[in-house]
Each structure stands twice: as structure tokens, then as C-alpha cells.
Recover the amino acids of this structure.
């Protein structure tokens, strides 16, 4: 009997399989990457530079899109300089979600970019100062570990 999985369960299953495969076949995957980069460099000597530029551009565009979607200013103080705005999980748990659901921050940005309703429910924009204040307040509420100077 076949078990029907939801889209989310299927995606998690595939992600877990990929992570396990990459752990087991670390050298094989590294060699495949090296061969791919060599082929691309033969075709275009500037490939590495152009590829990095494309990836950086894609990442910046995803971040800009999310910041615009979420209001383009800090929800606490109204600060609106994009250089200091950060995407924050409203109820915390961003690091945990990143490790469980996504390969990296950019895949998380891309996920929420394609699901704006979910992004509005789970994410908010905070300036760097307000984000650190929130982190400090939540550690005090939950009894987080305090650093002790040696």
C-alpha cells in the first residue's frame, strides 16, 4: 500500500535523502564539482567571476524582495535603511528552521519568496539594533545562558 505524503513531507524526505547522500559520497560530490568547474572554466575563463556575480545578484534580489514584501522598515522603530534591516522570525526558531528545512539562508529566502502569505505570518523586518534587543529580551525571559568573563 502506498503512503501519500503532503508536499511538505515529500520535500523534507528529499532534502534528508540529499543530505545523507552528500555525507556518504563527500569525495565523489567534491570531484563532480571540480570537474564541472573545470569544464565551465574551459568554456569561459571568466566563468568563476561571472558565476559568483550571478549568485550574489540572485541573493540580493531575494533579500530585497522579502524586505519589500514585509514592509521595508523595522516594525519596532520604523528605521528604513535597507543596509541595517534584518529578516527575523516573529516567534523565534529561525536557526532551527534553517537547519531542519533548508540548505542555507538563500534557499529559505527563496522558499518564502514563493510563499508570501506564509512569509507574512512567520517573518518580520527588524533593524539590527531592535533584533539584538529582541534577542536579549527573549534570552532573559527563557533563562538563556549568560556568558561569564574569564
Amino acid at each position: 500500500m502506498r503512503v501519500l505524503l503532503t508536499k511538505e513531507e515529500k520535500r523534507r524526505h528529499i532534502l534528508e535523502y540529499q543530505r545523507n547522500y552528500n555525507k556518504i559520497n563527500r569525495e565523489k560530490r567534491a570531484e563532480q564539482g571540480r570537474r564541472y568547474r573545470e569544464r565551465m572554466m574551459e568554456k569561459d575563463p571568466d566563468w568563476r567571476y561571472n558565476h559568483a556575480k550571478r549568485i550574489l545578484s540572485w541573493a540580493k534580489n531575494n533579500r530585497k524582495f522579502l524586505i519589500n514584501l514585509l514592509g521595508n522598515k523595522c516594525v519596532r522603530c520604523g528605521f528604513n535603511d535597507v543596509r541595517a534591516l534584518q529578516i527575523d522570525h516573529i516567534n523565534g526558531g529561525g536557526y532551527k528552521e534553517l537547519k531542519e528545512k533548508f540548505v542555507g539562508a538563500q534557499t529559505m529566502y527563496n522558499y518564502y519568496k514563493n510563499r508570501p502569505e506564509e512569509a507574512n505570518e512567520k517573518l518580520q523586518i527588524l533593524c539590527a539594533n531592535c533584533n539584538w534587543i529582541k534577542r536579549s529580551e527573549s534570552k532573559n525571559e527563557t533563562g538563556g545562558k549568560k556568558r561569564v568573563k574569564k
Remarks:
- Residues 70-140 form one domain.
- Strands lie at 85-89, 123-127.
